[in-house]
# Entry
Amino acid sequence: MRKCSLNSINSVFAEIAKAATLYLPVDGKDGSAVYTKWEEGKVWSNALNTVRSPKDFFFPQTENLMAFKTAGKNIEIIDTRSESEDFVIFGVRACDVKSFEILDRVFLSEPVDTFYAARRAHGVIVSVACTKPSETCFCGTFGINPAEPAGDISAWKTETEVFFRANTEKGVALLSKIEGLTEECTDEAVDAQKEKISAIMKKLPLKDVTTDAFGGGKTMDYFNSPAWDELSQSCLGCGTCTFVCPTCQCYDIKDFNTGKGVIRYRCWDSCMYSEFTRMAHGNNRLSQKERFRQRFMHKLVYYPENNDGLFSCVGCGRCLAKCPISMNIVKVMKKIGGENK
Amino acid sequence: MQTITRDQLIEKAVSLLADGTVSCVLGWQKGEFDYDVTPVLFKNADELKANFVWNDFCGANFSKYLVTKAEKATGKVLVFLKPCDTYSFNQLLTEHRFNREKVYAVGIPCEGMVDVAKVKAICGDGIVSIDCGEKLSVTTLYGDEPTVIDAKDVLAERCINCKSKKHVAYDELLGEEGEVIASDRFDEVAKLEAMTPDERFAFWQGELSRCIRCNACRDACPACTCEKCVFDNPKSGVENKSPANSFEEKMFHIIRAFHVAGRCTDCGECSRVCPQNIPLHLLNRKFIKDINCFYGEYQAGAEVGSRAPLVDYTTDDLEPGEVFDRRDNNA
Amino acid sequence: MQMKEYKPLIVAFCCNWCSYAGADLAGNNRLNYPADVKIIRVPCSCRVNPMFVLRAFQRGADGVIICGCHPGDCHYTSGNYYTRRRMAALFSMLDYLGIEKERTRVEWVSAAEGAKFAATMNDFAEKVAALGENKRLEDLRCKQ
# Structure
């Protein structure tokens, strides 16, 4: 365990930024925190949650895959891939760190997504324990402990100090770079901090939300539930929940005609959209109810079925805060799960 | 604090359900917290009594839901309309988007809706409860005592600049009727107009580059009721699911605002629902301000059947090249 | 290497009945106007959707001009009156977003006004050239 004073954290940032691009949550002008590239003058936000999750760093919203140019009857294929640079994401919450594991299972299983894999290999994650969980937080539901975040380095922030513990080789390497700015310390202060967080966790309004009713093999228990009609009745079909979600990983691959050639790119897609997975015969989900059901069944039943019971939600609470009609996974779990206990 | 109470609304709804005037009620349903309210069709008195809510967080504009809900309902749908919602209601009627015969509209007064983000900015995160009494009493996980704030200090932007407390459509009105208000809603637009083009460009670049293209602004908009949006249609050539670059961001937002220009009632739903807090209403208000300045005062939805200015003309309209002179002279 | 002289690319939407014939007349009379004005013939100036204007900029136009019949002379009676309102609103919005207002224009050019067509294009091209390349409404993908 190493520590530095909160006042000197900027010099730590400066040291990290010498070797790799450093991103951390910084307050935007509308008051919400945004992952921003660190440079002198940027201040680490106190806010718990960023609107956009850090999944952007590994799975960006838009990404060029390749390009084509035609000359006569020849098609030239151009590799548009750029070399990944080393980067550090600082201040990732326990829930968001967990989301990387969920994305990894999708993108790093065969066939490996090399775009994603390259970014994962180059990224170092410095997580930070949550001092003040929000009322929308329910990471405990998915067995995540916000006092003990994973990542290459775990950090704890107190009123005056920041503590670091390396968990992986990457983490050890990064921690050694800031050795001169930190000092060795005991676990005492961190343990006290962890206890404080545990005490708050017991007071969270959503602490009793449970996944007991969900998991693999439950498809037919819920698929035809009449509750879907009720839950989805006012869904607008926008993509807010999917785009702020740290674990949503669906994408579309599209071609853009530049007038001189074609750029093939991929971009996030949302199962809430009418054009999602549209095929030659048309769409396979025609109503908003079906789209809505797909999103939650995927998170709570289909994904765990294929991934050893791991749910594809981490309880970060972003969709709770941002849905225009305040319909969200907690309400779905309570309604659908509650009826079938 | 709202002048009309939840109980009064429930009582009205229950009696209209009981005498068969309506078959269901479009209302706000309480959520996990005191502020996450969901629009829902209530089918009976029990549901209403258990889950109906009316407080300072019932911002959602129900008018657009009538397009789908009224058609499917077996009888009439009871809808509660705040004054600004009635403008959208009329505009949708003008465009023949729902069947008036299938709707029973109850106008309710509104004292303005509260923006939760503003409450959080004052009281901090971890809001456990918000008591909407005379003043808002906010309890958080981290404060020992509830914080008491005046609702006036945390009103949503659109409510600070409320344009009308008058209902322009209803079958029945509960409470007192209000007046059209001379608001300062165009001040922000005028401020932007007074900037240099470089400053304006920088401002909008900063705002629109945050767009994640979730389409919530479009999907919540009561004026956006196309069966298939051009941006969702692969055959349109402009379909795009992500803001690939700054051009795409601008195109989406210009076209979105342009398509509702002259039909936008300035209900402010677009800005309310934006997860990135982009002030989208400033685009819509620019069109409204321009239309007022170029073609005479026009309020979309003020009456049913009026002709929107961009689908109308006079033979002596000003030339596109003259708009900048006109604007600068009026300023 | 010497820098190539910058010439703006201009897209001119011309109504079939008046302005396109006006462009024709300009050609018949051997009047000069820049070769970088690309004419797109439309049935009526009011066929021009705001999206056309934006897409022209996206594809590399530095200026967009819409030419139609004089007000009152529309082949379809009232098309150009709608153009006039729509484009007034659109151009004002583009200006509001910080895009140079000199890059967009509407002109009424009749079939008899070959000279006006050439003069308009020369003037517009000159104004756009003074602004330089369109940077604020460009799509970099189209420039590769």
User: Anything to note?
Assistant: Chain A has two domains: 2-201, 219-339. The CA atoms of residues 157 and 163 of chain A lie 6 Å apart. Chain A has a mean pLDDT of 94.
